[in-house]
Core-2/I-branching beta-1,6-N-acetylglucosaminyltransferase family protein (Quillaja saponaria), 353 residues
Amino acid sequence: MFSSPLLISFSLFLSLPLLFFFAPQILPPNYFHFRFPDELDDLSLFHKATLAYTHSSPKSLSHLATINPKPKIAFLFLTNSNLSFAPLWEKFFQGNQPLFNIYIHSDPTVKLTPPGGVFHGRFIESKKTHRASPTLISAVRRLLATAIIHDPLNQYFALVSQHCIPLHSFNFMYNYLFKNQLTSLSSFSSTQSEYRSFIEILSDDPNLVERYGARGDNVMLPEVPFEEFRVGSQFFILTRRHALVVIRDRKLWRKFRLPCLNVDSCYPEEHYFPTLLSMEDLKGCTQFTLTRVNWTGSFDGHPHLYTPPEVSAELVYQLRQSNSSYSYFFARKFSPDSLIPLMDIADDVIFRY
């Protein structure tokens, strides 16, 4: 006769096929958008990135300074469609090759037309992404980890989308981020802790309660109490040390990877990064984003979409303005057919300074 524990174990084993059969009918539809094999791949990538960060000591950076005297900005493109504004970005990057790197995470299930020029060969190993799911967080973490591994000179990490456009020249952005104080990477390695990340962190959003409870009552506890839950823009510019914070996190990720029961209030990528960096190093963040978005007349969670008749020099000047001492660097969302009028004003307006 079998003992009771053996009977229980045997019963559980037999029930596994039934669990996999009925689970898709019981769990939320976006639950299976996050795959365990993808998680294992990411953990391996993050481990490599952590080692790469550790090995990029101030001493090794000083050695690299003899090759390239200045730090770089890593541009992280998160996309599920063609890079319609590639020609505009090409002009933005032109002549600044030693000062930047480009990394593109593209949904592998979407057939894209690969852009050439500076974008050639910049696609990283990517996974499928879904709106209102933690897959968007995973995509950003892959971009950050890949950029850390690829080049220790990457010191700022700017996340943009296929709908983003630059509002200033590359030199304006570069000089603003590094404050015109740096002449070499060796000097940056000793002062980089003074630089802060540009990420929006809000604690007074009117929908904060609904967003916090999107996964169910008390699900976020104890790791994320409501008073520490934050929201913010999906797009940001992180310092290298904050990029490491993101890829090393396991504690908050266990909560934010959970499926949303109320998908209309759940935008994990707008919650995870602001909450994590607020809890880990609020003083190291400016608490505002450098990407301008117009939420007037938003629909289904999407901001206003600028079309060709709206594109003008006056619009660019308006989009640059903010309520703080800084100027916006990027703006979204623009329709693909806005490229032609944007290119018409690129040299005289957008990249004039």
Summary: The chain has one domain: 34-350.
